[in-house]
Amino acid sequence: MGKMKCTAAGDAMMFRRLPGAYDGFEELQKFILQGDFRLVNLETTVHRFETFGNALSGGSWFCSEPEVLDDLRTMGFNILTTANNHALDYGYAGLEKTLQYIQKAGFPVAGTGMSLADASAPVYLDTLQGRFALIAGCSTMTPDCMAGEQTRTMPGRPGLNGIRFHTTYQLPKEDIETMRRIAAQIGINGADDISRAEGYLPPLPEGKMMFGKALSFEESVKAGKTTHVNSADLKRTVKAIEEAKFFADYVIVSMHSHEIKYISKEEPAQFFEEFCHACIDAGADAVVGTGPHLIRPIEIYKCKPIFYSLGDFVLENETMKKVPAGMFEKQGLTGNENMKDMYEDRSDHGKRGLYYSRVMFEAFMPYWEVEDGELTKLTLMPIELHYGQKRSIGGLPSPKYDAGILERLIKMSEPYGTKIEIENGLGVVKL
Predict the structure, then answer these.
(1) How far apart are CA 157 and CA 160, in angstroms?
(2) Cα Rg for the chain, rounded, in angstroms?
(3) What pTM was estimated for this model as a whole?
(4) Which residue of 125, 255, 257, 378 is surrounded by the most CB atoms within 10 Å?
(5) What count of other Cβ atoms lies within 10 Å of the Cβ of residue 199?
(6) 157, 117 Cβ separation under 8 angstroms
(7) Do β-strands 123-127 and 224-229 pair in parallel, antiparallel, or remain unpaired?
(8) Which among 298, 294, 318, 321 is positioned nearest to 308, based on CA atoms?
């Protein structure tokens, strides 16, 4: 196996055609095209509104015309992920249409499918330098978004490759007792307590309590929170990595995760770190994170790169032509208003939201080289998405070397032991 080269970008919320070779486009394109493997997360459904919006969405209801796939190809990308919280914005029919249009455009795509087996399976990209495998998952989802497995008698359910997790909150004993009293006073555990007494639910371990069905508490010396990846989902991912290692020369796992460790969006959740390490331990060569709309740290774990979030690559979420009534209703509107009314109401006339926060318009793209399975080079291009500019150009990426993007990345990556220096405007990870 010779030298293998990869580039990756974050979330493409792309709802308009490219206007052409805008300022910075060619430099961006040249950086992307260095890679043999060139990945981007397509964070939208793709169709011509042939179906209705789902009852729930990933926050907004995203839909792009199929021609944006041609523009992603023009930018240089040759493989996609679709495992994200917007995959089911237009229901199962919308997902099926999206996959059909992607297949027609000729992109390998990972992370969603017509069953859990399809959604979790590796997809492959053959190049002259070797064969790449991609596995994609998503932890940020509503339960109906996760694909279902087929059985001997029933077909599977379309959806995404969900990576679930469970959260436990720690409290000192006296605070646990307070929570028990509150639970008893409001009867939030009444039905489950009866089921446990009748033997239909297992007894809780000593020192642990539930507050309703969602919140789990355990006694501890001090207050805190831990999250752990779902064992079945991790086992499925490990099996996919093992298969991919058999068929391919280089295996990349992509993970879409909005969850945070404590109170900062820049800190990945504990279960995400656990998941990434387990993927590398199982044989994956790199993990590419997306999701929270801003950059997160880089970790070099066992000489393999983990990008906890690349940030947004295209952010055009205030340029959608139309959306279902549910998006208006979330703002207390009727649905008879126009899109301008809805966006201005949601943002309080440009005072809040992703589209009005500079850090959401700042990201980076990594380029890395591997020789004989060993990471030999990793460089980072800082990009900015034309923050504060008119909507015809706002949200499109260009290189940006003087915005402090790499400086922020350097600082947040230091606790992971990652050393990054800036050379000629690019970040260079010291291996």
Answers:
(1) 10
(2) 22
(3) 0.94
(4) 255
(5) 8
(6) no
(7) unpaired
(8) 298
